[in-house]
Amino acid sequence: MAPLISIRTSNGKLEIVNQLLLPHTTEFIEIDSVEDAHDAIKTMKIRGAPAIASLAALSLSQHIKRGLAVSLSDSPEWLQSQEALKKHIDGILAFLYTARPTAVNLGAATRRLQKTLDSGIAAGKGPHVIAEELVAEANAVADEDVGRNMEMAKWAGEWLWKRVQGYTSAPSSVNVLTVCNTGSLATSGYGTALGMITYLHETGKLQKAYYTQTAPYHQGSRLTALELQTLQIPSVMICDTMVGSLFQHHDIHAVVVGADRIAKNGDTANKIGTYNAAVLAARHKVPFIVVAPISTVDLDIENGTQIPIEQRPALEACLVRGVPYPNNGQADQVQIMITPAGLEGIYNPSFDVTPAELITAIVTEKGVAVKAEGASTFDLSAIVKLLPNQSHINDEYCGSSLTITTIAASQFMSSNSVAYLAVHGGAGLHGTSHEKEIKKALRRACIAGLGSIIQSRDDAQRPSPSPNIRMDSNEPVQTSPPATTSTKANWTRTRSGARANDERDGGNAGSSNSSTDARGVAAGDGNGYLHGVTMVEHAIVVLENDEHLNAGYGSNLTFDGVVECDASIMSARDDNYGSVGAVSGAREFAEANSIVTVPPEQLIASEAYTQWKKWKKRLETPEKGLSDIPNDPESENMRDIQDTVGAVSLHPADGFAAGVSR
């Protein structure tokens, strides 16, 4: 079943699902102005910090695009000059921010757009040019959310899994409790804390998800219940007052929550009831994990006492909404008062603050942050330094605009040493038409790579490799280790090595991204945490997963049908090297050292084999060749052309590490 969505756009129309009517009625309402967006956020027709930030940004984008759509002679007054544009946009951003001030994502989005506006004015750009840049930036606020959520979910899921595998009696699957709703309905897709639960379910590591009703708005019983039911994830609802009993009578391996604002020291504001769950989790020694995008961290706030807490109308705590039961065919929802009429003295904050001392880990798209040994709080300033707009990431163009390399340097490590990371996207024929998107992908790769070593203090914070993989069919497939040139490589995952319905011998595994398939060459050698390899690995994963680079799908064949290496990685610290695919001389080395190998044809996806036959025939036809390929990135022919991506890191403790995937 497809996941639910909170926002949709089509044919210039912006719509949201009215979450006040869920789960019994799915009704999309049109957002036709910034005033509509403000009202929807304020009245909680849409909620969830990332989702409301996305809606605010998209409503501004819609407003500006309407102004740009008219002829220059009829342009609205606010597009006539820089001064008029600034006054107009400043007012809109300030207005949108007042809708829900506790959610820092909304403030982060408005500040990001404010910076775009001010930068354009400072650069002397015309009002129409600045307006177009604001539209692009506003759309990016929403577009970037899904990718971030998936990165966070994997970080959090793998961190928890590795932690529980270290227990004396390691579970075969985990039970996780969550609060409120943090899935697709609270974000632009996949979710934060609920995204972690989804990831655990997708990878076969989840036994059951528990969730609180989350009164008085019942986001848990209305929204989380609907999302888990839609995704067919095994789950159990509990009342907010049952958390302690749950810990007493069931094995709960973690509590995972989202966040509306996180202070510099890690104090976290989230939906009311989160603090209660954290206190009980600490009493029962259950890890408490916060999963939220980096934009949720507010370095201007030292601790949670400075976080403004929204007070909701008292009446909301006195009402419940739903369909009559028994229904008797009546579909309309009704609102019922459950308190005595005229009740006074109602305390109804929308959020509470969980102190950092009760939080085990804070997970963002950059990695997992834990407290220093003996510390009761976090220092999140280092993580925020890895935001995409920081000056330590620079684009360099090497040789041709079709080949783009991004270089990043980070000086956040406690030793004040510098770590460097260079990533490369072999954009090929896609470069000219997708240069902007490719640059963004390269920046994200640098951020992911550098972010991966923030938690280098403890190897337990590193996502552990999964023993199985997920193919296009979404079925877990066990794979055999391919040839490698390192005797210390005791495992290697081959996501790209599996074949999809291969016509040659009836294989039935689907093909998927190659990921950093050879990462095991440096992970299992007992020499400790390899920061450089980790940087390379995380960077390459981002590049492989970007549609504009078209890398990491299947393997390549030479003109003669010989398998080429699909992914490789190496570390200069101990000269370990491994690959998935075929490298000249690798087989002889493997045989000499009694290393298990697999036939090269097992590394080829059927799609790659089909492409090879097609292009071989084309190149052998005299009147054709490469000259008549249309330079259109959406062309079927263009999507056949696979690119190469790679990364090189320099870490003061490990020296150089490098990896490549194609």
From TrEMBL:
Residues 454-520 are annotated as: Disordered. The gene is MRI1. It catalyses: 5-(methylsulfanyl)-alpha-D-ribose 1-phosphate = 5-(methylsulfanyl)-D-ribulose 1-phosphate. Residues 475-495 have a biased composition (Polar residues). One of its GO terms (cellular component) is nucleus. It is an enzyme of class 5 (isomerase). The keyword Isomerase applies. One of its GO terms (molecular function) is hydrolase activity. Pfam families: Asparaginase_2 (PF01112), IF-2B (PF01008). It comes from Agrocybe pediades. This is Methylthioribose-1-phosphate isomerase. Belongs to the eIF-2B alpha/beta/delta subunits family. MtnA subfamily. Pathway: Amino-acid biosynthesis; L-methionine biosynthesis via salvage pathway; L-methionine from S-methyl-5-thio-alpha-D-ribose 1-phosphate: step 1/6. Its EC number is 5.3.1.23. Catalyzes the interconversion of methylthioribose-1-phosphate (MTR-1-P) into methylthioribulose-1-phosphate (MTRu-1-P). It is found in: Cytoplasm; Nucleus. NCBIfam families: eIF-2B_rel, PRK05720.1, salvage_mtnA. Its main location: cytoplasm. Gene3D superfamilies: translation initiation factor eif-2b, domain 1, Translation initiation factor eif-2b, domain 2. Keywords: Amino-acid biosynthesis, Cytoplasm, Isomerase, Methionine biosynthesis, Nucleus. The record marks D643, T644 as: Cleavage.
